[in-house]
Amino acid sequence: MINVKPIQSLLVVAMTSLSPTLQADEKIPELVITSTRVEREVFNTPQAISIINDKQIDEANVTSTPDLFRNTEGVYIQKTNLGGGSPFIRGLTGKQVLILVDGIRLNNSFYRFGPHQYLNTIDQNSIERIEVVRGPSSVLYGSDAMGGVVNIITKKRTDFLDPFAAEGLASATFDSATSGTSYSDEWGGYATHLQGEGNLNDFGWLVGGSAKSYDDLLGGGDVGEQVPSGYRQYDGNLKLNYQFKPGTELQLGFQYLQQLDVPKTSEVTLDRKVQFNYQPQERAFTYIEYHDSNLDWFDDLKFNISYNSQAEGEEIIAKLPTETRELTEVGTIGTTLQFTNALFDNKHRITYGTEYYHDAYETRKHSINLNTGLISAIKPGVPDGATYDNFGVFIQDEFDLTDRFNFILGGRYSQFSAEGELDHPTEGKRTLALDVNQFTGSLQGLYKITPKLNLIAGISQGFRAPNMEDFFGRVDFTSEIPNTNLKPEESVNYEVGLKYLDTKISADLHYFYADYESLIDRVDTFDALGQPVKQRRNLNNATIQGVEGGFNYDFTQHWRLGATLAWTEGRDDKEIPLRRIPPLNGTVQLRYTYNPQFWVELDSFIAKKQDELSNGDKTDLRIPEGGTPGYVVFSLKSGFKRTKNEQLALTFENIFDQEYKSHGSGIYAPGRSVVVNYSIKF
């Protein structure tokens, strides 16, 4: 039976927020690229979209990229460890949510079944803007885009007015919640960043680097120091761009990250392992892209080639004196070719193209006897030399049926193939020969009720092809055996919503209902020796439904009120709750801006107790017996510019020292603490 009370509450919040400002004029609309692959107004796009703009990023005063999503409508962040942070969108996370960097896939075929740390391998100092499309986007982006798409758009030089210019930025951040010295006998709690940018005529450049050191995190209430959780991180980024003329640009991007000894805290504190470190965690990403909107045959053309290298090591001591070390390196070559044409007196805008990604694996694993130093080779979890190929062709038509009716119709053909052979200790040789074809479609529509109020509705398919982590499991095959016969996960999403925009208020409200087939999950079984183990299988048919709403209301020149709320319910075909479904949650922000030089904001993060638990949740050591407690947490943020080039940001985190963590997290959130950032431009 559906609990309608959360829905009623959201309707009341959204509708009452619309009424005070019906007589105001329209705001200047915000633009989004990710939803249609080309620029379009957020307000006039028939999809649920969340934007984190450059001003919000600049004022966020956070020490990691996942924390930028705190006030983002429809996004719930779970943290297995301090070095992680995985976005939940519409009840899904991990490999069921696609992460892009400048429109290029960050996800590869090794991403995990549940929450992971990969979002935090993007330095928040390099980010210009974040666009989140909530709901399936498999037509445009292929596999993994079932819950939604997160597109991280990085900074580049945009000012070419002067023939020569150069400028710099330096910043330093202190976080008292991670400021001890127990980790590696080094001071923690700091992050530093240097950035330089400029241009010579039409050639622009931007280069930056960051160094971060965090000691073990102090949780709220009686939690205290969470050992182990501290780690170090180093980031570098480079962006070169050349403007041949307005609308025609060639750019080269490079990013590098290295994290050292990142502990998976819950494996030590809850599962009694002696050590579980991600070491190393490295990402090196390079791409070159050509964009031209001045061609005769096409209104817009984009072409890119990319190489993304991700290395993930795991150093585990389950029981002394044996340590296991596994390293998985995935090199991904990718390319995308995209065209856009306006046809039939500009009533149709057709976007079409193709993309291809090829993953190549290098894997190795061994054990070390810490007493004798004896090293023994072990078969790695994923076969060394394995490959995974992802190819897709897509087409999308944005068209006006009338002056008030607008539609987006899209379709995609995808093909996946994989090869690899694993000699398993108990199951013998398992050969992988994946060859899957998939057709996907979507239809979304928008009706302009008034110039300020839009009704949207749509139906869209999502899918996710099984990847290497599904086929072969993770870490240690004594607990999970391979299954090389998995099928894709599929979904059909139905959605209806309202969007409102005028000079003082922006608001939206969405209801979605999604049917899922062949969801992959772990089941209890026995290996060839008769020992109890787990295995991935296409088991579940399920439904996930929910309501998302949010608004921002500038009720005076100086005061702004903002809020978000999200309710999600997921059940399988036996009416058993799905795993890790977030609780009813939301945020409230009250902001006062005295002048452009000073502002202060009171933030509140709210979540109801989550006691709707799956069988997997009930045995998950990270989830307390009876469910994850609810919480209401208050933080106070402020910013002050002493000069136009100097800025001081101050955050009083968790003012009342609440003991809390997001549902499914393996680490508690910071207790009462202070985050200070000073930045200067030169």
What structural category arises from helix and sheet content? Answer: mainly beta
What is the overall pLDDT average? 92
Termini separation comes to: 60 Å
Low-confidence stretches: 1-26
The number of strands is 36
Helix proportion of residues, in percent? Answer: under 10%
Number of helices: 6
User: Mind describing the biggest β-sheet?
Assistant: 22 strands, antiparallel, barrel
Radius of gyration: 25 Å
- Estimated share of beta-strand residues: over 45%
How does the overall form come out from the CA principal axes?
Answer: globular
Notes on the structure:
With 682 residues, the chain is mainly β. 6% of the residues lie in helices and 57% in strands. The strands form five sheets. It has a 22-stranded antiparallel β-barrel. It has a five-stranded mixed β-sheet with strand order 3-8-9-6-7.
Give the topology.
Elements: H1 5-18, E1 31-32, E2 40-41, E3 48-52, H2 54-60, E4 75-78, E5 86-89, E6 97-101, E7 104-105, E8 127-134, H3 138-141, E9 148-154, E10 164-175, E11 190-200, E12 203-214, E13 218-219, E14 224-225, E15 231-245, E16 248-260, E17 262-263, H4 265-269, E18 275-292, E19 300-319, E20 322-343, E21 348-369, E22 375-378, E23 387-400, E24 405-424, E25 428-450, E26 453-464, H5 468-472, E27 480-481, E28 489-501, E29 505-526, E30 532-553, E31 559-572, E32 585-595, E33 598-607, H6 615-618, E34 631-643, E35 646-653, E36 673-681
Parallel strand pairs: 6-9, 27-30
Antiparallel strand pairs: 1-2, 3-8, 4-5, 6-7, 8-9, 10-11, 10-36, 11-12, 12-15, 13-14, 15-16, 16-18, 17-18, 18-19, 19-20, 20-21, 21-22, 21-23, 23-24, 24-25, 25-26, 26-28, 28-29, 29-30, 30-31, 31-32, 32-33, 33-34, 34-35, 35-36
